[in-house]
């Protein structure tokens, strides 16, 4: 590591807010993203492929703007195609460890579904299988109008929590509205909120009280 880079890293530790400004979404960027979201909602596409590609392009733009993640598109495995694969870039890795308290994973899979209806457990189950096979701990399931579930423990939402409890894999579900009005926010903010919400909902240690006979074992 060169001396200049080392100095920058040390400066980031002492002045985190200065470096955080480098990856905050600006008003202009937020407006551009909002406009792309509006086009997806209008749904004026000639083919289903065009429809799917539009959502992938939006997410690609959101994640590429600040060079937090390197984005790879449409990677093929022996049995599946991964819409987007994210890997922390050098800048993102440094900011993640030094400023953002390691809230992001080094590698993340993204599944994009641009459908009108809310998506059911079949889609979540398939994505969970892909995470397991690829040995990836965190995946983002991004859809136009969200997933099914009247509460956090029913249908698709419930399956996500059961997967987190059983496998330790986190599926963070986003819908288009989650990416509106990003001005002043960071990618870390968006992901941290979803991750903390899921981890809090599946935390069960606080609900387990010691049994009076434990000392006999």
UniProtKB/TrEMBL annotation:
This is Restriction endonuclease type IV Mrr domain-containing protein. It comes from Enterococcus plantarum. Residues 52-152 form the Restriction endonuclease type IV Mrr domain. It holds the Pfam family Mrr_cat. One of its GO terms (biological process) is DNA restriction-modification system. One of its GO terms (molecular function) is endonuclease activity. It comes from the Bacteria. InterPro entries: Restrct_endonuc_IV_Mrr.
